[in-house]
Amino acid sequence: MNLATQLADGLAALGVSLPDETQARLLQYLALIRKWNRVHNLTAMREPEMILIRHLFDSLAILPHIAGSRIVDVGSGAGLPGIPLALVRPEWQVVLLESNHKKAVFLQQARIELKLNNVEIVAERVENFRSASGFDTVISRAFSDLADFVKLAGHLAIEGGGRLAAMKGVYPHEELAQLPPPFVIENVFPVVVPGLEAKRHLVMIKPGV
Ligand SMILES: C[S@@+](CC[C@H](N)C(=O)[O-])C[C@H]1O[C@@H](n2cnc3c(N)ncnc32)[C@H](O)[C@@H]1O
């Protein structure tokens, strides 16, 4: 099965309906990751099918739980989950926050090549970043444990009256128990990623202030 068919099947399994043009841009993003990976070491994944499932589908599987329209992806790396989300939700404004210079350069290039007019790249550490309006959703994947996530990025949700959303693997019992006040767990959603057996969860955190 070719990659375009695998993408279409995965999107159907996720219940996400996208124009052909957007599907083509998702594949273009995948190709960009593979091209830049040779020099920038963006991901350990090399096989296109693995990037499709473990990065693109993994990012899009959380869509039903994410409230727009102002999103910040903390420690975005190669743009995950921020770029897939921005591609399929062009009406959202997505900030990709990444402190590593090389990765931020990749993100700028991806923004230009994919014509992501709804994306802004901020090459800064999250703890130093302030935004005038704050965010509806402050999201992270493979960034830190929950306690550090709220310590470093919690202000961005407080400022915007929003939520933090942490993408996790197995149900994170210990991390949940260590969440410091004033933050409270609002929900832990199990997430099913097409083609992936491994467990995934999305932890929604509310600033209790
Ligand atoms: C393990 S990577 C995960 C990247 C991406 N979210 C993913 O799921 O593939 C964590 C990223 O967070 C970035 N990072 C670490 N500390 C940061 C900070 N304080 N502020 C912003 N980015 C940070 C790193 O440079 C790295 O790219």
Termini Cα gap: 50 Å
> Can you give the mean pLDDT?
95
Number of domains: 1
- Shape descriptor reads globular
The CATH architecture classification is 3-Layer(aba) Sandwich
Low-confidence stretches: none
Strand content: 15-25%
Could you tell me the number of beta strands? 7
| Structural class computed from helices and strand pairing | alpha/beta
**Given this structure, which CATH class is correct?**
Alpha Beta
What is the name of the CATH superfamily?
Vaccinia Virus protein VP39
Q: Identify the bound ligands.
A: S-adenosylmethionine
- Helix coverage percent of residues? 40-55%
Please write the string of helix (H) and strand (E) elements. Answer: HHHEHEHEEHEHEE
Short synopsis of the structure:
The protein has 209 residues and is an alpha/beta fold.
Describe this protein's structure.
Belongs to the methyltransferase superfamily. RNA methyltransferase RsmG family. It catalyses: guanosine(527) in 16S rRNA + S-adenosyl-L-methionine = N(7)-methylguanosine(527) in 16S rRNA + S-adenosyl-L-homocysteine. InterPro entries: rRNA_ssu_MeTfrase_G, SAM-dependent_MTases_sf. The protein has a single domain, classed as Rossmann fold (3-Layer(aba) Sandwich), CATH 3.40.50.150. It is an alpha/beta fold and 209 residues long. It has 7 helices and 7 strands; from the N terminus they run αααβαβαββαβαββ. The mean pLDDT is 95. α1 runs parallel beside α3. A 7-stranded mixed sheet has the order 3-2-1-4-5-7-6, with helices on both faces. The longest helix has 21 residues. The structure holds S-adenosylmethionine (SAM). S-adenosylmethionine binds next to loops.
